[in-house]
Amino acid sequence: MLQEKAKVLFNKKVGHSYFRIGLTCHNDYAKAKPGQFIMVRLSDQKTSILPRPFSIHRLIVANGRMRGIELLFKVVGGCTEKLSKCRRGDSLDILGPLGRGFIIPDKYQRIFIVSGGIGVAPLFFLTSSLRTKRADLSTCELFIGGRSKHDILCIDDFSKLDITISTATDDGSLGRKCLVTDLLETGIKENRPDLICACGPVAMLGAVARIAKRYAVPCQVSIETMMACGIGACLGCAVKGLDKYLHACMDGPVFDATVLKI
């Protein structure tokens, strides 16, 4: 875990209210795991906005050297609005990498990856990491859902990884007009996976967890929740476990779905 001032490398609008921002970081981020996150605080001392958590979307590597990390975010409030206006060379305070990421045993070859909305952010890091380690993702499948085509992100990037992609939108503007969990269940019936990895709204994750249980498929979910510290001090990111509350920043944000009440 490192606390440092990061410089903005770029900040690009990539869709309706969505941005990608690149930040410099310590070389130790090369050891970051898919699913881990960082806390970001605007360096402007006049602002009272607390740090906010952002999943690591990808590592920026050039000529074999760690150059930075990239975040994918949606403008939904004051912090992300200010973040969207950052320019190259601006400074941000970051702390990370934090939390527990996805754990993919080598014996699991057929992996289903399920994304809802901005939940795609850590899943590109996961998919690209799998591609780096395994080279061939032909046995894996990606299911991306959103309210409309404007909420379906990173399709071109995922396509370069040669993974099978299925999309679903609430309004039918891209892919099938259905829930992404409908696509998931159809895929399981056709060819049961070894593991399901998912990130998105809690309601979607609950549906994914129930489907995984129904078909006896191991499942890991990344919980999206607000945090004020990211290190277990504020206790503001509590999520319901089976017999006690767990904390997304320390126990997660990636959990085995069977330990949660969602």
Question: What does it look like?
Answer:
By secondary structure, the protein is of the alpha/beta class. It folds into two domains: 2-98, Beta Barrel (Elongation Factor Tu (Ef-tu), domain 3), CATH 2.40.30; 111-259, Rossmann fold, CATH 3.40.50. It has five helices and 16 strands. The strands form three sheets. The chain has a seven-stranded antiparallel sheet. Strands 11-10-9-8-12-13-16 form a seven-stranded mixed sheet, sandwiched between helices. A two-stranded antiparallel sheet has the order 14-15. α4 (180-190) packs parallel to α5. The two termini are 29 Å apart.
Write the layout of secondary structure elements.
Elements: E1 2-15, E2 18-23, E3 37-42, E4 52-55, E5 58-62, E6 65-74, H1 78-84, E7 91-98, E8 111-116, H2 120-134, E9 141-146, H3 155-159, E10 164-169, E11 176-177, H4 180-190, E12 195-200, H5 202-214, E13 219-223, E14 238-240, E15 245-247, E16 254-256
Helix pairs in contact: 4-5
Radius of gyration from the alpha-carbon trace, in angstroms: 18 Å
Q: Give the CATH H-level superfamily of the largest domain.
A: Nucleotide-binding domain of ferredoxin-NADP reductase (FNR) module
CATH topology of the largest domain: Rossmann fold
**CATH A-level architecture of the largest domain:** 3-Layer(aba) Sandwich
N-to-C series of helices and strands: EEEEEEHEEHEHEEHEHEEEE
Please give the share of residues in helix: 10-25%
Mean pLDDT: 94
Structural class: alpha/beta
User: What does the main sheet amount to?
Assistant: 7 strands, antiparallel
Q: Residue ranges: pLDDT <50 for 5 or more in a row?
A: none
The proportion of residues in beta strands is 35-45%
Count every helix, treating DSSP H or I runs of 4 or more residues as helices.
5
- The tally of beta strands, per DSSP, is 16
Q: Give the overall form.
A: globular
Please tell me the total number of domains.
2
CATH class of the largest domain: Alpha Beta
